[in-house]
Amino acid sequence: MRTAGKANDDDNTSADASASSFGATLSTDKISFTIAANDLKQDETLDISEVDVSNTSFGISYSASDSIELAESYLTADDKENDDEYSEIGVSLTYTIATGLQTGITYQSMDVTFADTPNADNDVTYTTFFLKASF
Fold first, then answer.
1. Residue 62 pLDDT exceeds 70
2. In what order do the strands lie in the sheet with 123-133?
C-alpha cells in the first residue's frame, strides 16, 4: 500500500491532500487475477474545489494456450463530493498469430451517473476488432 499527504501552507495556496493506493496480482501458468484501489482527498483552495474520489478495479485473464487469451475487467469510481459514479466492464479475446502479430476483439460497456441528472442515459457500449503488429 502506498500513501502520501501534504499539509496546508500559511498563505492558503495549497490544500490538505492525501492519497492512497494499493494493488495486487496473483498469477499461475494460465490464470491471472488483479485487484487495485485508489483514493484521493484534497481540501478546497482558492483556485480549485474539494476533491474526494476513489476507484476500485478487478481483472482476470485466462491463457487457454500460448496463442489465445481471454480477459475480463471491472472498474468502479466514485466522486464523493458530487455523488457522481462511473462503472466499466471490459472483455477481450486475443489471438497471437506469430511473435509480434496479434488479432482480437474487445467489448466495453461504460455507465456514468451524475447526481444532478440521475435518470439521464449516459451508457456507452462499443466493440473493437484489432490487428496489432509489434516490432
1. yes
2. 2-6, 17-27, 31-42, 51-63, 68-79, 84-98, 101-113, 123-133
